[in-house]
Design a protein that fits this description.
Order of helices and strands: HHHHHHHHH
Number of domains: 2
Helix content: 55-70%
Radius of gyration: 16 Å
Oligomer: single chain
Strand content: under 5%
């Protein structure tokens, strides 16, 4: 599936491609990925999010919150960490954990950033 997504490019997953996706991975995985891609396509870019994190309105829908959490987690870096942490802390705790888990996997070097350390200290009781 990842090879198809690379060929199709960003934003190219649409209803006309769903039958090919189903044939490639089966209906459960294809429909899940299709739904995720539809949500992801409507999220702001990471640049838009980082430019003014205080003005970002956190969506109420859990599926959109999950997509936003993984987007932030995948895009975090030492350079944008302070802005991304502002965004992460605007999310409900369960989505903060999702974002931080994704962030730690995609960019382990952020674990020494002061904002990240403070987040773990602040939420240690809930996490452990």
């Amino acid at each position: 599936m990842s090879d198809l997504l690379k060929v199709w490019g960003d934003g190219a997953v649409n209803a006309t491609k769903l039958p090919l996706m189903i044939g490639t991975t089966g209906p459960a995985h294809a429909n899940g990925l299709y739904g995720y891609c539809r949500i992801f396509a409507n999220l702001p870019s990471i640049t838009e999010l980082a430019d003014n994190p205080l003005s970002v309105v956190v969506p109420k829908q859990p599926d959109v919150r999950a997509a936003l959490s993984t987007l932030i987690g995948e895009a975090i870096s030492p350079k944008n960490c302070p802005d991304m942490m502002v965004l992460i802390q605007k999310l409900p705790l369960e989505f903060q954990v999702l974002a931080m888990t994704s962030a730690a996997e995609s960019c382990p070097e952020i674990q020494v950033e002061p904002d990240v350390i403070n987040w773990f200290v602040q939420h240690a009781e809930e996490l452990y």
